[in-house]
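Let's do one together. I've listed all components of the complex below, 600 residues spread over two lines.
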Amino acid sequence: MFGVTILGNNSAIPAHGRHPTAQIITTGDDLLLFDCGEGTQIQILNYKIRRSRINHIFISHLHGDHYFGLIGLLSSFALLSRIQPLHVYGPAPLKRLLDQQFHLSETHITFPFHFHAIEQDGLLLDAPHYTVSCFSTKHRIECRGFVVRQKKRKRKILRNLIEQKNIALDQYALLQDGQDITLEDGTVIPNESLTIAATRPKSYAFTADTLFDPAIIPHVKGVDLLYHEATYPHALVDKAAERYHSTTKEAAEIARQAEVNKLLIGHFSAKFDNITLFEEEAKEVFPNTEAAMEGVTYIV
Amino acid sequence: MFGVTILGNNSAIPAHGRHPTAQIITTGDDLLLFDCGEGTQIQILNYKIRRSRINHIFISHLHGDHYFGLIGLLSSFALLSRIQPLHVYGPAPLKRLLDQQFHLSETHITFPFHFHAIEQDGLLLDAPHYTVSCFSTKHRIECRGFVVRQKKRKRKILRNLIEQKNIALDQYALLQDGQDITLEDGTVIPNESLTIAATRPKSYAFTADTLFDPAIIPHVKGVDLLYHEATYPHALVDKAAERYHSTTKEAAEIARQAEVNKLLIGHFSAKFDNITLFEEEAKEVFPNTEAAMEGVTYIV
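Okay, and this is what the predicted structure of the assembly comes out as:
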């Protein structure tokens, strides 16, 4: 499964039952956490996310609605006597803040804790089945979005067929790589007759907070699912620019130009209780848009 | 009204729908906030507390479950363009932490912000109708409890009677202070015939986190309502001591010896979903005990 579970879809101030930014990306057995607004650990409980499977946390920037919940989550991991390693990727000053708070509360981290200061765009994590990389967005303070890309999988061997043909075990790897097989008698068996292609690798991008910025497009080009912030309806385009945020139609315009498959919008302004308008406006520019709802898992 | 609204009654880790420590003390028109665990600003919304009326926040100690929600609440005050002054009382290092986080997020505080480092026991706030003072508890790190005491109110004048007797306006203050009135003809009118006593001033004490510690008793002696932590059932008395917490019966023993009117227990261990046992055990020692429930306002 490759999916995104929204834990918070609101902008700066919690309101209308909506929470600040946090999302869980499920890719195979791994859970990644993108941003960690206040209350994230409570949302993790509410939606029965297996917190012990979160091994990598990515923080886009140091506005509070994107990271105030991190210290609480890490403290709880310590109190729960977590043992497996945890990796946190974020702006360098975050490490000092966390250290100070651990020190003041005399919290002893029970698990190997690796902090990776994000200092440039590019690859952050190279896992066996996927990568996570980051790109800069245009926000009031330094901010980065993240892209998760599944790796290309090997071809799947059709076991019943190769057993019939008496193919040696040591040739399985060649088959998985797409090569043809030559039998001892010289017969060549085409790869396609023994294997099928793996499913196409998919990709998810999260823009964090940003002005409307076409420089984002190459980083999210063709992704299967794009989460782009849409803090304001398009009538407030000037306010959005002034506050380094995007509108519904601006988010949709990025999705359209980047030729993504589907757009999720979120980070809704606390001024708006009803967000129907947000989805309607974005759909005018990019029809395959959904307004991100808390507790919902969107399949990539 | 003088009451305490529980926003969080759980110990270190949020669990079972229970939140970390925070409580609103309503005294007349003022709202005080005692501790501010993660998610407090969300609980304030859930229970429709008028956040703009919170002018004084008291932080007992720097374990995260007592203060991780403070930076979020203050940031929201700034985003909401609060203008009235705010006073925060807490351990000195808290100020540096808050300043760093404001700096990193480029948050501009829009209101006069006064931080009062708690460096010794005693009076913290002398308001027109009440005082707030603090006392040390025995916890793993420096920690203080708080006591709110209403001031003695002036006697209430029975207006219809003094109008009949033609008493001059400038004598009202004397009446309120309990003095008798001498008319021009020399007649003395006893104060009790023109006024009634104001209601008795009441008091509320909050012990924050603490070992069983009889040294607390003089500070909370005779209060109308005592909130004492009871992290564990009494069977776990050794674990409580090891972790610098109290059990149900220890909390009740403090209430009994301090001769308070009523005991509220809280700060329940996350290990326990059902807390019926907590209340039952405490009642064996001090019958007028209630287990503090989130969202409930307890009248002092």
